[in-house]
Amino acid sequence: ICQEENTLRELRIFLRDICAKLARNKQFFMFTKPVDIEEVPDYLDIIKEPMDLETLMSKIDKHSYICARDFLDDIDLIVRNALEYNPDKSAEDKHIRHRACSLRDKAYAFIKAEMDSDFEDTCRDIRDKR
Ligand SMILES: COC(=O)[C@H](Cc1ccco1)c1ccncc1
Fold first, then answer.
1. Ligand 1 atom 17: the closest Cα is on which residue?
2. Nearest to 22, CA basis, from 49, 50, 48, 60
3. pLDDT tens, 1-25?
């Protein structure tokens, strides 16, 4: 059980590092904080589960993620929301969709580069038996 806590502590360190790198990237500024409902009054009519990198970071600290897969599911939620709210042919919408896809690719690449698969397998085993 203590080994499990050591594993999850190491996972949180990995995930904080990756989340911080994504949030530092100027390209992803529009994903770093919740969409401002004052600025975008219809946002919550369209997007039922908002997500952003600051919320992701706070979820790490609340021990919400027990494996990298759960973290990447919230990255995918950020991307899905951006694709759904910005679907048009306009240059602005195309731009944010391109950035959203780049955010996903960078996140997956960081996880693959920094986490070996048996570490993730160990995390999955902990998640699945809880
Ligand atoms: C994840 O961010 C968004 O979906 C908002 C939606 C939005 C539309 C108008 C104001 O904000 C966004 C922010 C910056 N650039 C494009 C779109």
1. 96
2. 60
3. 799 999 999 999 999 999 999 999 9
Q: Tokens 């580069």 identify what position? A: 113
Q: Kindly provide the ipTM of the predicted complex, given to two decimals.
A: 0.94
Substitution candidate for ligand 1 out of 40, 45, 49 with most atoms within 8 A of CB: 40
Per-residue model confidence as pLDDT tens digits over 48-73: 999 999 999 999 999 999 999 999 99
Q: Find out whether 30 and 99 touch, Cβ atoms under 8 Å.
A: yes
Q: Residue with the nearest Cα to atom 10 of ligand 1?
A: 40
What is the rounded distance in angstroms from the CA atom of residue 129 to the CA atom of residue 45? 37
**17, 24, 15: which is closest to 60 by C-alpha?**
15
The structure tokens listed for 116 are: 């070996």
28 CA to middle of ligand 1, Å? Answer: 11
